[in-house]
Amino acid sequence: MMNQTLATTRHVFIKLHGMPEQMYALLFGLNAIGMVGASVLNRRLLRSFSPAAILGAAVWGVLFAGILLAACA
Length: 73
Description:
Layout: H1 2-16, H2 21-48, H3 51-72
């Protein structure tokens, strides 16, 4: 799965959008760091909150971000 993601995103960003390879590598690395950080945060949040409470807050956060993005577009 990861190889497919790497191959597909590389084509889209570098070939179709003209992003330099160094910038793509930086963004890919930042994305990986973000995933690891989110996993650590999730583990810590589960010590204090139920999975349903975390999911509910996440849904509201995504909804708010979507509305904000639509308002800026």
